């Protein structure tokens, strides 16, 4: 199971990177188009959709790699018991908030599909299509938080803490 989850998080990171490359290609096509006198229809729309996908696909991978901002200035001085309790409470709160976001992201995609909403740009596409990566990314983050919560409840070190020392050493 661990191997499957790690592959899911890595795939999420790769999808995020792919979306960033896609943004670059769209912008380059738009620049070349301006030089040679043609337009790339809805380039801004597709760049925006790719940016949203890149952001949300990158959440789970970044969380697992310890890349999210954590303020450890105070908690690093706490004892093991207090720090464990703080980590537990924060992960439970994060799980609740991200579960709420996951539910409503999926609901938003479903409603857009049911009501057949389309984008208002030059190229009309069903709006649920660019919403799917957002929902998938937030669900992957939900899985990553649940994964680390279970790891913490087993009294092991969560994934984001394994990189905590590395980040501190880079600053020195």
From TrEMBL:
<keyword id="KW-0813">Transport</keyword>
<feature type="transmembrane region" description="Helical">
    <location>
        <begin position="84"/>
        <end position="107"/>
    </location>
</feature>
<dbReference type="Pfam" id="PF04290">
    <property type="entry name" value="DctQ"/>
</dbReference>
<feature type="domain" description="Tripartite ATP-independent periplasmic transporters DctQ component">
    <location>
        <begin position="23"/>
        <end position="154"/>
    </location>
</feature>
<dbReference type="InterPro" id="IPR055348">
    <property type="entry name" value="DctQ"/>
</dbReference>
<feature type="transmembrane region" description="Helical">
    <location>
        <begin position="12"/>
        <end position="40"/>
    </location>
</feature>
<keyword id="KW-0472">Membrane</keyword>
<protein>
    <recommendedName>
        <fullName>TRAP transporter small permease protein</fullName>
    </recommendedName>
</protein>
<feature type="transmembrane region" description="Helical">
    <location>
        <begin position="127"/>
        <end position="153"/>
    </location>
</feature>
<feature type="transmembrane region" description="Helical">
    <location>
        <begin position="46"/>
        <end position="63"/>
    </location>
</feature>
<comment type="similarity">
    <text>Belongs to the TRAP transporter small permease family.</text>
</comment>
<comment type="function">
    <text>Part of the tripartite ATP-independent periplasmic (TRAP) transport system.</text>
</comment>
<dbReference type="InterPro" id="IPR007387">
    <property type="entry name" value="TRAP_DctQ"/>
</dbReference>
<keyword id="KW-0997">Cell inner membrane</keyword>
<keyword id="KW-1003">Cell membrane</keyword>
<keyword id="KW-1133">Transmembrane helix</keyword>
<keyword id="KW-0812">Transmembrane</keyword>
<comment type="subunit">
    <text>The complex comprises the extracytoplasmic solute receptor protein and the two transmembrane proteins.</text>
</comment>
């Amino acid at each position: 199971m661990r191997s499957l989850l790690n592959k899911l998080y890595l795939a999420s990171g790769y999808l995020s990177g792919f979306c960033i490359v896609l943004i670059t290609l769209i912008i380059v096509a738009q620049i070349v188009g301006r030089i040679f006198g043609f337009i790339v229809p809805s380039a801004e729309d597709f760049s925006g959709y790719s940016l949203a996908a890149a952001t949300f696909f990158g959440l789970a991978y970044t969380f697992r790699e310890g890349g999210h901002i954590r303020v450890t200035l105070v908690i690093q001085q706490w004892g093991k018991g207090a720090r464990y309790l703080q980590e537990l409470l924060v992960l439970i709160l994060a799980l609740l908030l991200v579960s709420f976001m996951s539910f409503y992201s999926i609901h938003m995609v479903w409603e857009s599909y049911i009501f057949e909403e389309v984008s208002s740009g030059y190229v009309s596409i069903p709006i649920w299509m660019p919403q799917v990566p957002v929902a998938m990314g937030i669900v992957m983050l939900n899985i990553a938080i649940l994964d680390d919560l279970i790891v913490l409840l087993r009294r092991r070190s969560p994934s984001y803490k394994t990189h905590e020392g590395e980040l501190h050493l880079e600053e020195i």
